[in-house]
Amino acid sequence: MLNATIKAALRFSPSFIPAAFSFSLFANSSKYKPRRSSFVMANRHTIILMQTSQNRATRTFMDYESISQAMDGICALYERKLKELNPAIREITYDISDLYNFIDGLADMSALVYDHSLQAYLPYDRQWIKQKTLQHLKRLASH
């Protein structure tokens, strides 16, 4: 059911959040900040909506069991792109500004994160994704 809902939503404007979701599935994420246990935070189904170019046919989505896994997925997507562009280089390094440029270079990217207390998906924009990827990479580097 969820996949069918997302596929239907992708027919609408990808800019931030498809119109089909605006009233039925979302709360105002900027005003509503419920307390959550670490278990609930770690297990928040996350859908990344993206469009790689102005061509509407490039719209797609990726879904993950947690925000952390979604951030890993975005980093992996960028790393695959780097390998495609530089097939002869065995070890490629990049910094956060390179990752940000990749994210900003996409026609659109946003996230839908499931909120257990609301039983709804909350929308987040590209800037939120960039903040979460930085936090995620810092957390990985500290371990």
UniProtKB/TrEMBL annotation:
Coiled coil residues, start to end: none
Top-level taxon in the UniProt lineage: Eukaryota
Database matches in Gene3D superfamilies: Enhancer of rudimentary
Family annotation (Pfam families): ER
Cited PANTHER family: ENHANCER OF RUDIMENTARY ERH, ENHANCER OF RUDIMENTARY HOMOLOG
Family, as annotated: Belongs to the E(R) family.
Name listed for the protein in its UniProt record: Enhancer of rudimentary homolog
Organism per entry: Nicotiana tabacum (Common tobacco)
Gene: LOC107814365
